[in-house]
Write a structure and sequence with these properties.
alpha+beta; 2 domains; 16 strands; globular
């Protein structure tokens, strides 16, 4: 009788262990998906484009994320300015696994004049290690290309939001660094450093928001070169899954500086100070820009 009980107990324990093993195997399949799903989980979102001082509406933007049957994700941002100019930023990403960030496969950012002709564009193929920057002058393309050994943490265009959002979601403590491809004006991979501030109200979106500052990192030479390079300030809502709600940036190196603010739900409670009522008829105005500083090498 004792042997029978021991045998049954052993069989039950074995079944339990096998059941746990099966659950672990299932988790090993599911976990890589859940580790990156949040990074790429963006609903279609619209933004208002304002002058950099926030006083005037100068355009509108829309973002959408789609995933194909192979699991590749495409993020597309479309910016329409009231003066007729526009640009389209489209990137394809491979999902991350085991907690790693998604990685870029290729990205295109094209800028157009009001008549629909090309103004400039950037194109990156990460597997091939190529980056191309093109500027059109009187319809003639001036192409600058370079080869890179892209670090795995390289992002470009709208996808820069991904590591910023993860940084905020993780608590935004201290600083973090990653790499960004940019045309300044030729192709360059920049190391940037990110820091976050405690949540406080922002004039243009409800709630207490985390402000993130993104700055190029060239070590001791920062004091000399930083004023000439693109910088970003972005805001995230920690009460809404660390969602991206706005930023201050420039269209491209030396281009129009502007503010972008997420179109908030109509039932959202506006707890921040009242934002200035915008003039929706104002077109983007030219801004004086610093003389480009010689690019750092390496």
């Amino acid at each position: 009788m004792t042997r029978l009980l021991r045998a049954k107990s052993f069989r039950g324990l074995r079944q339990c262990v096998l059941g746990l093993a099966a659950m672990a195997a299932l988790w090993s399949i599911i976990a890589p998906v859940t580790s990156w799903a949040g990074d790429l989980d963006f609903p279609d979102t619209s933004f208002t484009l304002r002058s950099v001082d926030g006083l005037h509406v100068i355009g509108h933007a829309h973002f959408a994320v789609t995933t194909d049957s192979a699991g590749m994700t495409t993020a597309r941002g479309e910016y329409r300015f009231l003066d007729g100019t526009y640009d389209i930023d489209q990137s394809t990403l491979r999902p991350g696994v085991n907690g790693n960030m998604p990685t870029l496969v290729h990205t295109d950012h094209s800028f157009f004049l009001a008549d629909g002709s090309h103004d400039r564009e950037s194109h990156v193929e990460f597997a091939q290690g190529t980056g191309v920057c093109t500027v059109y002058t009187n319809g003639k393309a001036e192409v600058s290309s370079a080869k890179f050994d892209f670090p795995a943490d390289t992002f470009a265009g709208d996808t820069v939001i991904l590591p910023l959002r993860r940084f905020v979601a993780a608590g935004g403590e201290g600083t973090m660094s990653f790499h960004v491809f940019n045309c300044i004006p030729g192709p360059k991979v920049l190391k940037v450093t990110v820091s976050a501030r405690p949540p406080v109200p922002w004039d243009y979106y409800p709630g207490n928001l985390v402000q993130v500052d993104v700055k190029p990192d060239f070590g001791w030479i920062n004091v000399v070169i930083a004023p000439f390079l693109p910088q970003i300030r972005a805001w995230f809502d920690p009460a809404d899954d660390s969602s991206f709600v706005g930023c201050e940036t420039a269209r491209y190196y030396g281009g129009l500086k502007y503010m972008m603010v997420r179109v908030r739900p109509t039932n959202a409670e506006f707890k921040a100070a009242h934002a200035p009522t915008p003039d929706s008829t104002l077109r983007p105005q030219p801004q004086s820009q610093p003389t480009p500083y010689p690019q750092p090498t390496g």
